[in-house]
Amino acid sequence: MLDIKFIRENPDIVRASIKNRNIKLDIQEVLDLDSERRKILVEVEGLKAEKNAISKKGKPDKAIIYKMKVLSQKVGDLDIKVDEIDKKLGNLMLYIPNIPHNSVPIGSPENNKEIKKWGEPRKFDFKPKTHIEIGGDLDILDFPRSSKISGSGFCLFKGLGALLERALINFMLDLHTNHHGYKEIFPPFLVNRASMTGTGQLPKLEEDMYKLKDDDLFLIPTAEVPVTNIHRDDVLEESELPVYYTAYTACFRREAGSYGKDTKGLMRVHQFDKVELVKFVKPETSFDELEKLLVNAETVLQKLGLPYRVIMLATGDISFAASKCYDIEAWAPGIEKNLEVSSCSNFTDFQARRANIKFKRTTSNERRTTEYVHTLNGSGIAMARTVVCILENYQQKDGSVVIPEVLRPYMGGRERITK
């Protein structure tokens, strides 16, 4: 959520942000309601001052008592009006996106900027298969049975496929906790409406979420939601920052509106595993922390030996809550595509305002101030497409798949997945 004062003082910046994101939204109603609210508050203060002046005149007579009642009634009526405006204003504010950082390219996804590449795509002396073919041949991925169990958009991992998934989760958690300084969290996979609103999924993206019929609870689309809300309504001490958390969760997304896009195999599924990285930091360090977050996610792919590229997303492609975002795309030779396996975002104070996450700072003159933290999160990394890239990059001519060296200790020392 943006600060109403910022919107009031910088309407052109907010309008430009909305336009550059290709969002249709008029902030004039917000500005009008804010103006009306401030006028009413001035009137209320005037009435209260009048009441105070009258009360100091000594013993009241009937006329003064009557006037005091009239003033009290006016104040009460105006307070009700302010409450009504606050509710309407608060709801409208939830639909205004964050302001993109000035380094973010302006435009649609075609304007995304490639920042760097790592690794060289493997050259095959045979035609590489897709992960769907590899998984079926090795009997480690079973899409027909997962479709029978749940429907399209799900996957059944079997045998060494299931072990590969578990190995990836444990490898990533060990890497981030032992080498990158994150504290491991195992959060609930169901969250309430306040949690989803705090991180920006609601109300805008409600149609893309799985919601329980009888309870106002949602299956999480990412661990970002429960982990960020650990500190909802908290006031941290400056000395506690930065806070780094990592968490494995299953993630659930309806993928509403994805019809016609790449939906085969593990490309776009309704349930997938992910290891998430979440940071709570001081405002002045947040963009440096974003670069460190990106390196943490890149390290996973480097240790797995998967070639990738880093893309800075343009204004029309970054998420509603993000100020700046990098996508990491790994190369999948079987389907001949770069696949997004991680997004690393700085939300500045946007989520912190919605979730009311603050910290106390001691200034140079020993004064104590309270500010909003900056929150960041990144996939560290998402499993489904990473499995695609491992199977397709490490496939062999005889149909087997070489297991990346860093995963072998998690897979009983095995070097290959064979029939």
The radius of gyration over CA amounts to 26 Å
How far do the termini sit from each other?
Answer: 52 Å
In CATH, the topology of the largest domain is named: BirA Bifunctional Protein, domain 2
Note the run of SSEs as H and E.
HHHHEHEHEHEEHEHEEEHEEEHEEEHEE
Could you state the CATH homologous superfamily of the largest domain?
Bira Bifunctional Protein, Domain 2
Percent of residues in β-strands = 15-25%
Structural class: alpha+beta
CATH architectural type of the largest domain: 2-Layer Sandwich
Sequence of strands across the biggest β-sheet: 1-10-11-12-15-9-8-4
How many DSSP E strands?
Answer: 17
Can you characterise this structure?
It contains twelve helices and 17 strands. It is α+β, with helices and mostly antiparallel strands and 419 residues long. It folds into two domains: 4-93, Helix Hairpins (Orthogonal Bundle), CATH 1.10.287.40; 109-417, BirA Bifunctional Protein, domain 2, CATH 3.30.930.10. β13 (358-362) and β14 form a beta hairpin. The two termini are 52 Å apart. 36% of the residues are buried. The mean pLDDT is 96.
Give the topology, please.
Blueprint: H1 4-9, H2 11-20, H3 28-55, H4 62-93, E1 113-118, H5 131-137, E2 141-142, H6 143-149, E3 156-157, H7 160-178, E4 183-185, E5 190-192, H8 193-198, E6 217-219, H9 224-228, E7 235-237, E8 243-252, E9 271-281, H10 286-304, E10 308-312, E11 324-332, E12 337-346, H11 350-355, E13 358-362, E14 368-372, E15 374-382, H12 383-393, E16 401-402, E17 416-417
Parallel strand pairs: 4-8, 7-13
Antiparallel strand pairs: 1-10, 2-3, 5-6, 8-9, 9-15, 10-11, 11-12, 12-15, 13-14, 16-17
Helix pairs in contact: 3-4, 5-12
